[in-house]
Amino acid sequence: MTTTWVAAFRSAVISPYERISYVRSRAFADQTVRQILHLDGGGEALRVRFSNRYGVRPLTVAAARVALRKSGSEIVAETDTGLRFGGAAETTIPVGGQVVSDPVGLAVGAGADLAVSLYLPEETGPATFSHQPQESAYVTRGDAVSDVALPGAEEVASRFYITGVDVRVPEGAAVAVAFGDSWFDGVGTTPGANRRSPNLLNRRLARGWVVNQGIAGNRLLTDEIGEHALARFERDVLQVPGVSHVLVHFGINDLGLPGIAGLPPATADDLVAGFTELARRSHEAGLRILAATIGPFAGSIYPGVDTPEGQRTRRVVNEWIRTGGVFDAVFDVAAAVQDPDRPDFIRPDLDSGDHTHLNDAGAQAMADSVDPATVRL
């Protein structure tokens, strides 16, 4: 049987030098970082991807191991396997570079939790990272990559350097990419519970799976938290091995975040142009593109986010998404989660509490708004 590599997990990364005050990375030196990755798909072997895209100095990884996670920081000892890079146990990733581990013959299933442990012996500088992955990393002193558990380790709510896991599967397998903002990234859902909307959508698919390239705070048109969608589309969608579909949810941050700085929101014309360009690039690459309507965010607790102009624009753009015919399919998230009596607001039982993000039940409603027949993997 002919096999191929496809993405089983993805983690979109941002710069540690973002301007937004709550986006903070960290540096490491003589520390082990153990990170938990919830696999969207499985295969007979795996390889792990690492990035120093935004680093300002080379990143030395003196040792790296992968295992199935048992619970917390504890691994299933008999699955623990060393990662190698071109046959070597140590690797140095240049500034702006990335590295893919050699294949590991560890069979994994969809829904498995991997623990990837890195020993970082030298001062790293601020790390390339994912700032709100809704999963903990465990940080401890010294080289502890082979330890079964890390008692007393510091728990950190970010992910560092890891950008993905690929698995080897029979040829012909395909994946979809959830490409968007915090509504894919899972902000507002229970950390560690894997209740992000793409996780929940995966449970409804008869075959194939969706990997998550959401970035909380990401925008369609403007760099702010991460490069904007049009800038990162090539890397975070087209370069994903096995991709055949892309699901997009953007717009809330283009309409809401400018108000924090006292600036006007994006215009309807600009958002329509941006979405149209995403559709054009997807079709040019042979991908099917499914677009979400822009979710409600009225009453947001974040000052400046909810403005009358932004709400008007959201309604105009959503009508265009529903009727414009640019996309291969539309999933109407706005209709699925809005308060029937106040459609610009999230329904109270689906609201995380900040009136901007969905809770676990809201993420389920978002996943349920996608017709599985439109994700023919």
TrEMBL record:
GO terms, molecular function: hydrolase activity
InterPro entries: GDSL_Rv0518-like, SGNH_hydro, SGNH_hydro_sf
Domain of life the protein comes from: Bacteria
Domain SGNH hydrolase-type esterase: from-to ranges: 178-365
Protein name in UniProt: SGNH hydrolase
Gene3D superfamilies found in the cross-reference section: SGNH hydrolase
Keywords: Hydrolase
Organism: Streptosporangium carneum
CDD domains referenced in this protein's UniProt entry, alphabetically: XynE_like
